[in-house]
Amino acid sequence: MQLDVLAFGSHPDDVEIGLGGTLIKHARMGYKCGIVDLTAGESGSNGTPEIRRAEALKSAEIMGMTVRDCLELPDARLQVNEKSMRAVIEVIRRYKPKVVIGPYWKDRHPDHLRASQLVREAAHLAGLRRYPADGEPHRPPVTAQFFLAVFDEPSFIIDISDVYETKIGALCAHQSQFGMAEDTDWKTLVNDPQFIRMVQSRDQYVGSLIQALYGEGLYTEQKLAVDDLMSLRGWERGWKPKLAVENIMESKEE
Ligand SMILES: [Zn+2]
User: Fold this and answer.
1) Residue 33, SS3 per DSSP
2) What are the φ and ψ backbone dihedral angles of 7, each rounded to 5 degrees?
3) Could you report the per-residue pLDDT of 158-177, keeping only the tens digit for each?
4) Which residues surround ligand 1, an ion (CB under 5 A)?
5) CA atoms of 130 and 198, how far apart (whole Å)
6) From the CA of 153, how far away is ligand 1's center (Å)?
7) Domains in the chain, ordered, with CATH?
8) Given the DSSP bridges, would you call strands 33-39 and 99-103 parallel, antiparallel or unpaired?
9) End-to-end CA distance of the chain
10) Own/partner long-range contacts of 47-55 (Cβ < 8 Å, ≥24 apart)
11) Rounded distance, CA 229 to CA 225, Å?
């Protein structure tokens, strides 16, 4: 099976946070999109690998993903080594995506940093005919990175306004991470009710940069080619003040 877009995250909820809207949007446009979680998230303070896998699959279904795999590399101890590189290369060769997206290269979580390096290097090495890994050589033509803890200057922004409710739905599928049972769960950054609001604030800010309600930024070190100037979107479209005002009025009525 061949995918159009393949996204990698260190933990089973990473991709949803930084890239969920983009993947949902592309799946709705008919592109085959997939997610690979590098670890099962077993070092997370709440949930178990089994619970987190079930939540990840539920979320993938909400997002319309064609596949969601887990490589079960060690959580909180992710390393860039022969074993992890081979695992990422083999999954790139298996799905032969046109676009590969991993985490941004600056972040405070060591797993995110290593995932960034792993995905970036694997996307190149997967194309080497003699690299000792299974599968036919494949080098994805486009690689990009999504933002988690650190937000930086994006290379381009995707308008995710139309799919925003679904992004929040996918995040909420990770009940063990973003929900909080007072008696059993450990208080973390992400199960604070403010966390999803913070994700939303960033998405609104990024959206505002392109006159949209919500956006996700992507970084790429490549220079990307454009064939059709008419496919570029500038100042003339996107901003929907009427919808924004309606949202505010609705929330006041509650
Ligand atoms: Zn993470």
Assistant:
1) strand
2) -115, 140
3) 999 999 999 999 999 999 98
4) 10-11, 14
5) 45
6) 20
7) 5-253 (3.40.50.10320)
8) unpaired
9) 46
10) 47/176, 47/177, 48/176, 51/176, 52/12, 52/174, 52/176, 52/177, 53/12, 55/12, 55/13, 55/173, 55/174, 55/175, 55/176, 55/177
11) 10
State the Rg of the chain over Cα.
18
In contact, 104 and 148? CB cutoff 8 Å: yes
C-alpha of residue 214 to centroid of ligand 1, in Å? 22
Q: How far is the CA of 219 from the centre of ligand 1 (A)?
A: 18
Q: What is the pLDDT of residue 229?
A: 94
100 or 240: which carries more pLDDT confidence? 100
Distance 11 CA to ligand 1 centre (A): 5
Mind listing the pLDDT tens digit for each residue in 118-170? Answer: 999 999 999 999 999 999 999 999 999 999 999 999 999 999 999 999 999 99
pLDDT digits (tens, 9 = 90+) for 104-114: 999 999 999 99
CA of 103 to the centre of ligand 1 (A): 9
